[in-house]
Write a structure and sequence with these properties.
Elements (H helix, E strand, L loop, with lengths): L6 H14 L20 H8 L3 H9 L7 H10 L4 H10 L7 H5 L4 H8 L6 E4 L5 E4 L1 H7 L12 H7 L12 H19 L4 H12 L1 H7 L11 E6 L3 E11 L6 E6 L5 H16 L4
Antiparallel strand pairs: 1-2, 1-5, 3-4, 4-5
């Protein structure tokens, strides 16, 4: 049952968390004239994708009740731990997120790494291939992937149901990519059980995709992604990259970082994408 928002305690908690964060914790430069303890409200507002006035009202205790979506944005912006996020939800008058939503909260450790990768294609992935966070170069390389909803949040689901999901991958790799997606989803559904989200995803894909059903019947296990990635970008063409995969401690999330060998044509193309971002290159 939803409860009323505790505005006084909410304001005190948000203010304390803001003051505890240093600019370096979120990838910002301190500057020589900074007198504010911790982060400025304007900086928190930008991290949370909301107005500075809204942040100020929440801290004063006279703001509106944050929605669950707004609370999640604040938790991510302030780099809260899962326990701190649960506390924030309760202060906002909402039940603590269930296990699935907790898994979608990017861990502070991964957030600190991402904060230092703003000039590198990188993205944080959830356990079923949900893109939780992307750097700007990551969006330029792979397209915006955080806006999907429902089943489409899962990359394996999009791979088998949306032809656009394959457009940025070299056609010669599509067959192996399909097999790896199926093997990883099989492992997840076996590990999490027949009533899990992974199992429901499998059931849906068996109905919707003949390719998935055929590969599922082959019972392949143990396939893994290769570190070498071959992309086909709509503007700069083929890009050969390496993908470093960093798992968080409980292995429910992973950070993918894409790099190119210096001196290669792919390195030059990646540098070009980093310079122009997504303003010139539309995303898929």
């Amino acid at each position: 049952m939803e409860q009323s928002v505790d505005r006084a305690q909410l304001g005190a908690f948000l203010r304390a968390r803001r003051e505890a964060l240093q600019p370096e914790d979120v990838g910002l430069r301190r500057g020589s004239r900074r007198r504010t303890r911790g982060l400025r409200r304007e900086e928190v507002a930008e991290l949370c994708d909301m107005s500075a006035d809204y942040v100020a009202r929440l801290e004063r205790g006279d703001g509106p009740q944050p929605s669950p979506q707004m609370a999640a944005a604040v938790a991510r912006g302030l780099r809260l731990t899962p326990d701190e996020r649960d506390h924030l939800f309760l202060l906002c008058g909402h039940r603590a997120p269930h296990r699935q939503l907790r898994g979608e909260h990017v861990s502070p450790g991964l957030m600190r790494v991402v904060d230092r990768l703003q000039d590198t294609p990188a993205q944080v992935m959830g356990p079923l291939g949900e893109t939780l966070l992307q750097t700007a170069p990551g969006v330029a390389l792979l397209g915006e992937q955080t806006h999907h909803t429902g089943r489409a949040r899962s990359a394996p689901y999009r791979w088998f149901t949306d032809p656009a999901a394959r457009e940025r991958y070299l056609p010669d790799d599509h067959g192996l990519n399909s097999r790896v997606n199926v093997a990883l989803l099989r492992a997840a559904s076996t590990r999490e059980g027949p009533r899990s989200q992974a199992a429901r995803l499998v059931t849906d894909l068996l109905r919707r995709s003949g390719e998935f059903a055929s590969l599922w019947d082959q019972q392949e296990v143990g396939l893994r992604w290769s570190d070498a990635k071959r992309f086909v970008h709509p503007q700069v063409g083929r890009i050969d990259l390496f993908c470093q995969n960093l798992l968080d401690p409980d292995q429910s999330q992973s950070l993918l970082v894409f790099t190119a060998t210096p001196g290669t044509e792919s390195h030059e193309k990646l540098a070009l994408l980093n310079v122009v971002g997504t303003d010139t290159f539309p995303v898929g």
